[in-house]
Amino acid sequence: MIWQELQKPFLILAPMEGVTDVIFRQVIAHAGRPDLFFTEFTNVSSYASEKGRWNALERLEIAPTDPPIIAQIWGKNPEHFAECAKVLESLGFAGIDLNFGCPDKNVNRAGGGAAMIKTPDLALECFENARKNTNLPVSIKTRLGWKEVDEFREWLPTLLSVHPAALTVHLRTKKEMSKVPAHYELIPEIIALRNQLSPETKLIINGDIKNRAHALELHEKYPEVDGFMIGRGVFANPYCFTDHQPTQEELMELLKLHLKIYEKPYPHALSHTLPYEPLKHFFKIYINNFPGASDLRAKLMATHSVKEAKDILKI
């Protein structure tokens, strides 16, 4: 099982909607991959519908540099969790992660993500339906609570009662989003809950972790934490899973690689042309903090195609 194979402390790239797609994961793998990738989250109800299945399968595509990779899924229909879980092993995934923590309003309005915190019985039913329909290990990613931090004292034991293979805890509530510092002071109590209720469950901490060095610093302080998940830290340094501080030239080379992959996205199942506008969200990662960066970024933001961007960069 993948969770038993990882050496402690292992590092994971957090699943981020519109960011950690099959293209950006290849860029990060080139810069210095984490020990484990997660996909963007996929709606199980989309997979269960004939109309939405194609989109769901696109989100579950795996590049050659991805494995080992975990498929993250979300929803609120237990039968749909079962149906989706049945196919994920055949697609090449090493595990399945259930998203019980996404704070997105649309996801929560649909009853998924962090809204699962308010329906614990349904959350457990979705988990069991996924687990009994796959040979893959099933894990969970969540937050401390919906509104109040103290909710974790009831919510996390509920999740640990079903002994997930791993539990990732983003150290904020849904209400807090990312507006407050992560509650690192709660890590000892969370470790104690895991040790008492499900010692075999791997514990992963998420929230404000900047890079590998920061993760190792936290691990020295909290050695019983098994792994650390980096999210927004990748925006500050796409080499964050290494100890390398990239030069301006190296970041520009990463941008060129990103554009190249975007032109001919892997895998071949993505036969249509990808929309260009979402690509612009990545420009600030590569073009920042050097003389002329703002002007160059402004020019790229005014482009309408990969070709126009490549022309500006003289690729």
What is the secondary structure topology, with strand pairs?
Elements: H1 2-5, E1 10-13, H2 22-32, E2 36-38, E3 42-43, H3 44-48, H4 53-59, E4 69-74, H5 78-88, E5 95-100, H6 105-109, H7 120-131, E6 138-143, H8 152-160, E7 166-170, H9 187-197, E8 202-206, H10 212-221, E9 227-230, H11 233-236, H12 248-263, H13 283-286, H14 293-301, H15 306-313
Parallel strand pairs: 1-2, 1-9, 2-4, 3-4, 4-5, 5-6, 6-7, 7-8, 8-9
Helix pairs in contact: 2-12, 5-7, 8-9, 12-15
What does this structure look like?
With 315 residues, the chain is an alpha/beta fold. It has two domains: 2-236, TIM Barrel, CATH 3.20.20.70; 248-313, no CATH class. It is 40% helix and 13% strand. It has helices spanning 2-5, 22-32, 44-48, 53-59, 78-88, 105-109, 120-131, 152-160, 187-197, 212-221, 233-236, 248-263, 283-286, 293-301, 306-313, and strands at residues 10-13, 36-38, 42-43, 69-74, 95-100, 138-143, 166-170, 202-206, 227-230. An eight-stranded parallel beta barrel has the order 1-2-4-5-6-7-8-9, surrounded by five helices.
| Major β-sheet strand ordering | 1-2-4-5-6-7-8-9
Helix percentage range: 40-55%
Which structural class matches the secondary elements? alpha/beta
CATH class of the largest domain: Alpha Beta
Order of helices and strands: HEHEEHHEHEHHEHEHEHEHHHHH
From the alpha carbons, calculate the radius of gyration and give it in angstroms: 19 Å
Distance between the termini: 43 Å
According to CATH, what is the topology of the largest domain? TIM Barrel
